[in-house]
Batch of 2 targets.
Target 1
Amino acid sequence: MNKTKEDVKKEKQKKQEIIETPWTISMRRLRRNKLAMVGLIFLVAMLLFCVVGPLFSPYNDVTMVDMIHTKEAPSLSHWLGTDINGRDILTRLMLGGRISLLIGIVTTALEIFVGTFLGCIAGYYGGIVDSIMMRIVDIFLSIPAMPVLIMISAIFSDRRVDTSVRIYYLMLILASIGWAYTCRFFRGQVLTIREMDYMTATESMGLHDMRKIFKHIIPNVFPLIIVMATLSIGDTILTESAMSYLGVGVLPPYASWGNMVEEGSNMIDFTFHPWMWMPAGFCILSTVLCINLFGDGLRDALDPRMTTK
Amino acid sequence: MNGEQDMKQYTIRRLLIMIPILLGVSIIVFFLISSIPGDAISARLGQSKLSAQKIAEIKAMYGFDQPTWKRYLSWLGGALQGNFGFSFQYNLPVADVIHSFIWNSFLLALVSFILELAIAIPIGVLSATKVHSAFDVVFTVIAFAGISLPSFFLALLLQKIFAVDLGWMPLEGMKSVGVAMTGWQYIGDVAKHMVLPVISLTMMSMGSTMRYVRTSMLDVIHQDYIRTAKSKGLPERVVIYKHALRNASIPIITYVGGALPSLFSGAMITETMFSWPGIGNVFLTSITQRDYMFMMGYIMLLALLTMLGNLLSDIFYSIADPRIRLK
């Protein structure tokens, strides 16, 4: 009896006001994907662990060495034990995670920025600009990534680049190999968008090229940019950790999950002190796994061709 | 209507396109390698008692005193005649070094490729037929875990569990040291040494194949002719395995064709972790040894294999699906 006619009318209006945009539809689809949600929650937890965690740790100094308590098994004061220099492994996991995640995110941002921009230019202008750019992309796509990355890093080792600066170089190197794939992908997208009616409309309105690209093309490929970026962060973390493991990525004293595994992989520590290398390895595995699960869910949710769910 | 002629022309054109790309790759990589300070001669003779003048003479003998572009041209000239330079690591021509290690890599890659297909195809097909079931979810997670595994960590885990703790498998190498073996005994020994690296490679490559098969199968299952087959009352099994799988196999065959050349490319990290004498393992040591010519040769080989893979997958695509005409 509480509901008056007025209220019912209002409710009806409210329902009509909620217009479903493609974005809200996609997000609803994403929320229904349990694996993707598990991945997302874990990723947020991992980010908090790495970014905020060290603030609560009494051992948050990278250069601190405690030669009395080296290679200690997990205990109450050191939850995951200590490493070869007596540093707390749990804290190093957080600090290493910061660097690994930062490298993943910055490298991807660079790759996507350069790749999308060049891809849009090539796809939009076509003709000779496109041909020249695509031949360059072909060359970059044929360069085997891992061997060349290791080789370039060896150059930096020989030039004795400072270990803190080296991290930034590493991002640049990783991005310099990775942009080509993004470029090729977005060129293809732009080629189809260019033929759409609304692009003809912008043509007849006499819009400036840059305005067409930034206001009308890029917003339309934006969902794909997000998907690609997510998956690329995972790939980059894998590559970085392998390089760090081989001693050509992030170098000590800076921690990275990759070089932490390396520090514990000599025959003695490998056999008798598994806490020195296992946690870091599982951090890489679980983080990349969750990024991939979330990214895959995102692709399913944003891809309009996948209407099966 | 002479498809074979078309195919031949298409292949030749694609092969011709590879030439400028390979040239581009070789220029970039050669100049990168040349910017590594130090060289093979200094790395080997730096500690010796030879006078600086003598070392300079030896460098001149091998052409290390020339500017980079001149050395590149002489490398290119040699490469066009099939001479890829001299590997300082092994004191052999690069082509010989590649030839003596590539088959070890191929052996590992082939066995794990067969295993990968044998596991991934059935699971991918089943996942697609029971989409969103518990089976599908479990194998989705397993597939993504495979994609997300860092190769070095997987190798360490397998070694720790099966070689160190359980002692079932040898830790590393290709054969037992210091034991003379012949015939079947030798083959058995090598097979035992292969188990862990093969498991390692299979686990890493299985995931993406599984997803790929699942997606291809799902694409087909949602098509109209499958609904027709179902609605005219055909048993589920016939629909899936006779009608759906046939069309889903087109992308799968394409994938297999594209992967064939990569069987020769070697697995750098896995081979190194298990001390397997493969081509990828040799490459990693060539970096510390400053063995430029081998580095150059190996990277060019990989670039060539990648491009051949792309070409083969296109050709396999047109063979598997006659509707596709290559142009």
Note: The mean pLDDT of chain B is 84.
Target 2
Amino acid sequence: MSKLRARLRKWREAVEKRLPPWRSRALAVSLLVIGIVLPFLFSPSSAFMNATIIAVAYAVMSLGLNIVVGFAGLLDLGYVAFYALGAYSLGWLGSGFFFKAQVHALVSPVASTLPGVHLNFILILIGAALICAAAGVVIGLPTLRLRGDYIAIVTLAFGEIIAVVAVNGQGIHVGGGMTLTAGNLGISAVDSPYFPGIGSFSLLNLRPWYWLIFAILLVVLFVNLRLRDSRLGRAWVALREDEVAAVSMGIPLVRTKLLAYSIGAAFGGMSGAFFGTYYTVVNAAQFQFGFSIFILAMVIIGGLGSIWGAVVGGLALGYINNYLIPVVLNNLPSKLGFNFQLTSVEFGIFGFLLVIMMLLRPQGLIPERRRRLELTAEIAPADAQLAEAPGTPGGGT
Amino acid sequence: MSSIETPPPASPAVTLSVLRAEHVTKTFGGLVAVNDVSFDVPEHSIVSLIGPNGAGKTTLFNMLTGLYRPTEGRILLGERDITRARPDVITKHGVARTFQNIRLFGAMTAVENVMVGHHARMRAGLFGSIFRSPWVRREERDTREHSRELLAYVGLREPVFDRLASHLPYGDQRRVEIARALASQPKLLLLDEPTAGMNPNESQALTEFMRRMRDDLKLTILLIEHDMKVVMGVSERVTVLDYGKKIAEGEPAVVRADPGVIEAYLGKQA
């Protein structure tokens, strides 16, 4: 087994050596092109298209959570709170929910005649990001002074608080007979994205929706890549590795953690706003604790701290959850003579996947560069040196 | 308990103190770890803090760098009161340190570790990092270059620079830690047992290096040290702690002869 692995590694290194130096750029460009033309390969209202859109939106959330958990090492078990807030931002700013208000900005001719707050989707997207970033600061300020496990517990509690507020929000009056949320009834008849020249998006043609979320993914991906190799990104990793040493090197603890937390929150909110309009309803029942864990699983399966891992993890679980299980394999048990559908055991399947993953590839599908260095080849030369010169006193220096 | 107060030795003209601790006390519950300690560190000097295990040396260090807040007393950095300042603020004002048990960022390379040390001296913020404007690019490049220079300065060689810190041999890790501390351009460098785990030759080399650093970089160095040969060889002044109290202070030769110090180290002679 290990011999086979060593041979595989050698083979891979040989292939990598022969590839030209611009290969990573070429790979990025071809992925981009594939991403753009993908909708033309499938029918515009197919189940696959639907699953792809959801998977890409998951990848956006996964990228957001990766900043918090992967980069800064803050175990956040309440990330669903920002999904909820993002979705409610859309409900508040892009529907007739606040029926006493009359606010319109760059919306479709139909929406601009309706009562309520109707903003253009891009404005809502920015609004959702800002609202969630602010909420991140509010939640983070008391939380992030804590360490390690305590952060996990408190964020979990905050996630639950937001979920409960969402359910009971129809009892919270904000004046004029209007309430904060519509609870389990859901805020419905939310606006579809509208762009002058393109018109309103319709659920009969999913292609524009795909390009919209793909564009959001590209923006979030760009920000992630830029931050990773920056002063801020290094500060996050330093805090993750050793808090005491990091603050002694001049890194402000709370400020730096807060930045990670609210940037992650902003991305979660953007994805949430997209889900709000795509599902055409903002329903409190969507925001369950299990969803926090689901996103965390994407980050871990992809490779904690790895940007491309977070994308792949989000896409993988998105497709499994919305295509593979409900569409492709759902009738498999009945074909085998069992009396249940695969969708009813999907969380069991995710749990099983996670266990398999941890056993076979704990560093994730696409491990972070640092972890890869830590776990593999790099250690060999140092060990070899030590083994060769056992007699040399202080051989290392 | 005798207490010797000698004026700072043979340094020319006026000696300003870089750091001054006044009646500093730290208690943990009922335990008094540091008890009413006052001392100062003259500019451009090398001062050693010695004492038996558990004497409160590292606790004092942690107070000087802001990791602990003193229960009583105050700490002045130059004219500035840093008694209640946060560690990152103190670093910004020019204090850097190393740790007794090396605390490098294991998952980062040697160069990245030193780049983190530059944090307080860099300006790139959130939006600067995202849009990577020309000055941010320049800052990033300069920082990387300077980090490599620092690693070379502390005596490491090129192939080691891009290795993970946790994969480096012990001695090299100590050097990276010193380079990381120097990266914040400190006025005052605190070294917590820098020669721990080194053989006599390496200790000797480090002693010489400490003097060189002080002269090259216009530093003041305060170190905790157990190796008496290093202490006697390098320091201009020695402060001795025992059970949290300062029991002696002065030139190395004087301190070595102090009966209180001998008693603290060797136990009471019959």
Note: Chain B touches chain A through 51 residues (CB under 8 Å).
